[in-house]
Amino acid sequence: MRKFLLYALVTQSGSAVRKQVKNTQRGFTLIELLVTMLLSSGIILIVSNLYLSIFTSQRTQFEKSAMYENANTALNTIGKNIELAGYYPLNFAIDRSGNVNVLGEYNKIALDKTTKNTDLLVYRYPIIGCTAQYWDAGTGICNNQPTAVDSDSIAINYFTDDAFFNTAGGIDMGIAANCARVPPDAYVNISNTQVFLVSNRFSLVQTTRAVVEQGSLSMNNLACEVKQSDGGTTGYQALVEGIDQLRFYYLESTALSTKFVKSSNVTDWSNVIAVKVCLVARSMLKTKGAEAAYSSKNCDGTAVTYSDGISRETFSQIFSVKNNRANVRPTQ
User: Fold this and answer.
1) Domain of 123?
2) How many domains, in total, are found in the chain?
3) In sequence order, what DSSP letters do the residues of 200-215 get, joined into one string?
4) Domain-embedded: residue 184
5) 54, 61, 90, 107: most buried by Cβ count inside 10 Å?
6) Do the bridges between strand 193-211 and strand 185-190 make them parallel or antiparallel, or are there none, so unpaired?
7) pLDDT digits (tens, 9 = 90+) for 2-27
């Protein structure tokens, strides 16, 4: 009897447990599924927006960093040349007769090197510039820039004897290499010495390159041109990309005043004691929405409104012309 009662009790308890388990094993309702999907979608959307925000922020910072780096590179490239303008090796005799140029040797180039007569003007001074034009070494005059190029230009001349000691491939010694990274012209036997002329001309040139987002991108680049020993030119070679505008202002010191002027207002290039270089640099890719229009002053002081999503900033720096006429010491 006891065994029967115990068996009945266990059987009844097992049945109750199975019934309870069966009652708890039910599926999700439609409302619960909808709520779960809504919450999951919200989480995915938040994470996606966060990722896109981080990616956009990183790309913006990268583009702006590249813009600053390009601007600094362009300024330093031009600035180093300006500070060398008018240099002549001290271990060679210098004829400083006359006062139309810093070093009398510049006027003697025509006597020792066959050059085009129309191009001699650029060699009379260590620095000479063009306003809203480029120096055309082929014709020896300032020519108008293409419509899409907003740029002044500057021609910078200095001598070096470094190439005299160089072996093949040794153009990195001293100041032997010009802006195109080739050995300079060899002007031999000027005043019975052996020196080499470096003549660099800087301006902007427009180029086009492929961009994933935009297919292709047309932009202005800092470019340089050098005069070759055979009388030809290299043409303007792009050096630094993403420079929208380039301006030069010359600090001319005369008996009447000392002030910055454009090249068209310089009365005597020998009186230029410093050059202010101003440029507008841009990002390569978009960093702003098309609706985020903004205004920025360019090198002319003009406020320009942009709505293309490209970041732009204006940079400027003043460089001293160390070898100007006022700083040339008299010969011993």
Assistant:
1) 51-327
2) 1
3) EEEEEEEEEEEETTTE
4) yes
5) 107
6) antiparallel
7) 554 445 444 555 555 455 555 555 66
